[in-house]
Amino acid sequence: MRHLFLIIVFLIALVGCETKHKDFFILKGEIKGLTKGILYLEKVRDNKYVLVDTFRVKNDGIFEMSDSLYSPEVYYLRLKEKPNEEIQFFAEQGNISINSKLDKFSSKAKISGSENQELWTKYQGIMSKFNDENLDLVKEKFMAQKDENHSKVDSLEQIYKKHVKRKYLYATNFAVKNADKEVAPYIALSDLYDANIYLLDTIEKSMNAQIKSSMYGKKLTEFVKKIKATERDTLN
User: Using N-to-C axis directions, what is the helix angle for 183-191 and 115-146, rounded to 10°?
Assistant: First the structure.
């Protein structure tokens, strides 16, 4: 009887632990113009997309999906009928809403219900301007190379380097400013993985205990440690 009691206590503790460390989010929305199709909800594990839920849309384009999550995390919503498009969004506990149109599935998606998503959308808006400037520089450099204008090529190369530095500094400042959200370590891992270790270290040190214990927080801490260890090995 005593053994049975201990087993029950252990199971209760285990369930309590799972409840404490796992939350759920519900994704609801509408794809206007979609009368029939299959939606896939995916996330990344070990650098691979993993399917976590599916929904077969009928008639009205309305859908509902869900998943459990350890901490706020980036997910991907895909439509079978549009295999080359995806809606990337930051999921967190509670209700997430995604509304879009069939003909502009990814480009016109409106996402709400996540503080991390709001910050991520703001960040992406600025990054798109940097990327547009970068594309213009690449085109201009290509034309200069074609014309064999070496002095202009060298000048554009210097401008490009300064442009990349400004982009990295903005990403770092944005992450540090929002270091109390999981979007901060995600930005470091996705956009600053090849940046100077000082920038990554600055973001990692600015995170509070809660963010450091999140999935992306732990990954950033491990990533920074590996880079520092590699640099020490190189010096030795």
Answer: 20
CB 90 within 8 A of CB 69: no
Amino acid at 104: K
Q: What is the dihedral of CA 79, 80, 84, 87, to 10 degrees?
A: 20
Work out the angle between the directed axes of helices 115-146 and 150-177 (0-180°, nearest 10): 170
The pLDDT tens digits of the residues spanning 42-83 come to 999 999 999 999 999 988 999 999 999 999 999 999 999 999
Q: Can you tell me the distance from the alpha carbon of 105 to that of 85, in angstroms, rounded to the nearest whole number?
A: 7
For residue 164 the two structure tokens come to 């990349």
How far apart are the C-alpha atoms of 225 and 138, rounded to whole Å? Answer: 34
Check residue 123 and give its pLDDT. Answer: 97
What are the contacts of 201-206 at 24+ separation with CB within 8 A? 201/228, 202/172, 202/176, 203/172, 203/175, 203/176, 203/179, 206/175, 206/176, 206/179
User: Rounded to whole angstroms, what are the CA distances from 203 to 143, 191, 220, 226?
Assistant: 38, 12, 9, 16
Q: What is the pairing mode between strands 73-79 and 62-69? A: unpaired
- Assigned fold of 22-113: Immunoglobulin-like (2.60.40)
What residue has token string 């995600």? 186
Q: Which residue ranges make up each domain of the chain?
A: 22-113, 118-235
